[in-house]
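Section handout, structural biology tutorial.
Before the tutorial, make sure you can parse a SMILES string by hand: atoms, branches in parentheses, ring closures as digits. In the record below the ligand is flavin-adenine dinucleotide, and the chain has 311 residues. In the tutorial you will relate the predicted structure tokens back to the input. Do not try to memorize them.
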Amino acid sequence: MNNSNDSNNTYDLIIIGSGPAGLSAAVYGMRAGLNLLVLEQNPMSGGQVLNTYEVDNYLGMPGSNGFDLGMKFKEHAQAMGVPFRKGAATAFAERDGIKQVETADGAVYEARALILAMGAEHALLNVPGEQEYKGKGVSYCATCDGAFFKGMDVAVVGGGDVAVEDAIYLSRMCRKVHLIHRRDSLRAAKSLQDKLFACENVEVHWNQTVSAIYGKDLAEGVTLRSAADDGESRLAVEGVFIAVGMRPNTGAFCGSFEQDEGGYLVAGEDCAASVPGVFAAGDIRTKQVRQIVTAVADGANAVYSAERYLR
Ligand SMILES: Cc1cc2nc3c(=O)[nH]c(=O)nc-3n(C[C@H](O)[C@H](O)[C@H](O)COP(=O)(O)OP(=O)(O)OC[C@H]3O[C@@H](n4cnc5c(N)ncnc54)[C@H](O)[C@@H]3O)c2cc1C
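Predicted structure of the complex:
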């Protein structure tokens, strides 16, 4: 392993991921005078927030555009002088208490403490046609791809906040939005449900699952299966937006750390993971509410815990 640290020194702290949790940790870490580095796999920082068209529940900033909010988080960290490096963390090792992080390009970074803030990403539906029509009608991001379906009929699959937000967003540009939900009630927040039911061009298909996505060169529709009698029917749509939950970005990198059955890193409010000196912040850890405000709070807690560990 070749050491890639700028000064050939070991950092106090490496933060992996620069969504709200990682950026908050970076700001707190700089204020604490730590010699730190933030590793981010994407060209842009901000995490999931960048794909959120409206954030209405972040205190003091009602009605924010998600992209702008993500940019503000990044600008705050930049103004504090946070050093960023592009790299996808792929492997973890520990030698004599020093944590080593290897990135996809083969670089190796060393630190005495680590904050894992890699967040989460959309879960797959895992039905025939999903992979085949990905990018050809199947999307996981209404704010990114919705404009391609202007004036068309689309389906949104799911029943949580994200699915309902997506359906509302798409209703503003699509001819008709079919929300397909496997139960007889939605999990989404009441305020979102109220907005959804006020949309005249949204139809909710209750107690239905999507068993396949069909088409030719592009997706042309979904096969619905009724929860009541397993009967199947076809629904013609040009776009299929899948919003059936999230899964943590733990992957191979996190094999050394304890995870729950869903793959989330086991850590409490102090963010301490199962290996001393490693902390999990934001959506990647076991917690009740995965939101920007809790991710940002984790960033502060994780740095506080890391500082105590380093001392
Ligand atoms: C469509 C949508 C709408 C939402 N709406 C709201 C809302 O209105 N209000 C609200 O409070 N919350 C909302 N959320 C949830 C909120 O965005 C998340 O809770 C929050 O972004 C979690 O922050 P995080 O920093 O833990 O993770 P993330 O935002 O997921 O950021 C993780 C970062 O880590 C990077 N990364 C991942 N793996 C690696 C790796 N191996 N190496 C290097 N970097 C890596 C990623 O590229 C990313 O930049 C929404 C989420 C979605 C998807």
